[in-house]
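For anyone still unconvinced, we reproduce a single protein record, the chain in one-letter code, the fold tokenised, and leave readers to judge:
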Amino acid sequence: MDANLVQVQLLEQSAAVGPQLHRMLRDRIIRGHIAPGARISETEIANAYAVSRQPVREAFIKLAEEALVEVRPQRGTFVSLISVSAVLTARFIREAVEADLVRRVAERADAAAMAVLDDRMAQQRALGLTATGEEFMRLDEDFHRALAEIAGEAAVADHLEELKIHMNRVRHISARQLSRERLIDQHSDVVEAIRSHDPDRADAAMRLHLREIVADLPGIVAAQPSFFAGAPTIGAGT
């Protein structure tokens, strides 16, 4: 395993080590700090954190359950390639859920809700074009979470976050390539539909926004083919 794959963060001495290692490694895989296909070593991670191999093994088991790593007998543990079919499935489910959420927001948004959404848009316009890829991802996530909270469904955002694991891997890989101006404009269209209390328009704007990855995915896969597995024909209706 390359030395730069092990990035030591301080462990909390009062908390169990295994869950901490799982959270740290999971975050690094999703953010693309450890590339798809990279080999990761229990021994090297244990040595880096000065812990036994048991909590590292526990973290690896959880990562395997999330399809983020793959154990290959006699060869080792490798970060899983990104499943294109899993990305498209997650996108399909996310569109159905978030379109429904935004309809509810358009029906019930009051002045306080609009102030929250206008603040999110102001942050995106002020920082979005110069932010790092990870900073822009945070701005995007804050916007979508705000919609779920305004709809009274904050827990839905948590469920979607788990569903979007592989989608987020793609988004982090491609964050520098995406047209931020276009994405911010799409967010703005959603907000203006909500301001007009127009559920149909808000629904359509959100669906258009969330289908952006379908258009971008073939180019992302072509740019980094070694990062992906099982790339089917990607159609506009997916």
